[in-house]
Amino acid sequence: MIDWRRIPLSALVGLVLTLTIVLSALLAPWLAPYANGEVVGDVWAPMNAQHWLGTDNLGRDLLTRMMYGARVTLLIAGAATALSFTVGVLLGFVAAVMGGWVDQWLSRGVDALMAIPTLIFALVVLSVLPSTVLVLVLVLGILDATRVFRLSRAVAADINVMDYVEAAKLRGEKTRWIVLSEILPNALTPLISELGLRFIFAVLFLSALSFLGLGVQPPDADWGGMVKENKEGIVFGIPAALIPAAAIAVLTISVNLVADWVLNRTADLKGGRGHD
User: Fold this and answer.
1) Was domain 31-275 assigned CATH 1.10.3720.10?
2) From CA 95, how far away is CA 74, in angstroms rounded?
3) Per residue in 87-99, pLDDT tens?
4) Which end of the chain is more exposed for a tag (fewer CB within 10 A), N or C?
5) Among the residues of the chain, which ranges form H helices?
């Protein structure tokens, strides 16, 4: 059970900020003061009692757009991270355990993908395919799976030579059982840390694609798309583009703080069991 009094202040701040963003996204239909996309005021109106964050380039309530934009950002980034970890960890573990030509083929295929600049590859694919949610998730997930593969293969290769894994092989255990029962539990610590980093990468990469016009398409918008929509206002001293940009930074930092705390806690618990 978690003792909240022993959580570091940095992790507590990260938890509060992350939960606030997640809850505001989940509850957007009920918490948002206006409908998404509804024009409710003047263009780039300043912050006031009716519009706490002002309005955007079309006169839509910026707070409402931020809540609905968080839903899109978290949905796509979360799904892409889940896909990248599922594919990357599975293939990385299989490559490390089986070795031989399986390892060579998988590793060289990943090296070929990683040799192509990630942003250029995504821009080429998205310039041909429609920028739907499914396509964005697949592009982000597959590109990010290469990084997860490299890490999981390296971690699994170190664990694969341990005595308890060799004993399992001598007992005749199947590859699936070895991966799930022997390697995965002992590889959780670095993978948990990488999970937060990969989610952050997905958020930043999605925001970059949307800013370039190849991400989430109107009338929907993620935070990166909102920066693009309101960037002209910066010239006139209007902060409408800076608010979603600040939200991206806050989400990135808060998730990183939580991931670091989870990593340290997992390592401490594992070390405590080792001493026992």
Assistant:
1) yes
2) 31
3) 999 899 888 888 8
4) N
5) 9-26, 28-31, 62-98, 100-115, 118-128, 133-160, 163-170, 175-177, 184-186, 188-211, 223-230, 242-275
